[in-house]
Amino acid sequence: MVFISGNGNDHTVWADLEARVRELGYGTVVYDRAGLGQSPLFSLPYTIDAEADALAKTLAQRRVAEPVVLVAHSYGGLIAALFAEGNSTVAAIVLVDAVVPNELGAPVVDDILRTYRPQYEEVRRVAPRLAKAVIPVVEGFPATARRMERVEIDPEVPLIFVAAEKRDAKSDAANRYVEQRRREFIAASARREYVVAKGSGHNVMQDHPDEVMAAIRRALDAAEVGARRSR
Question: Is this structure's pTM higher than 0.85?
Answer without folding.
Answer: yes
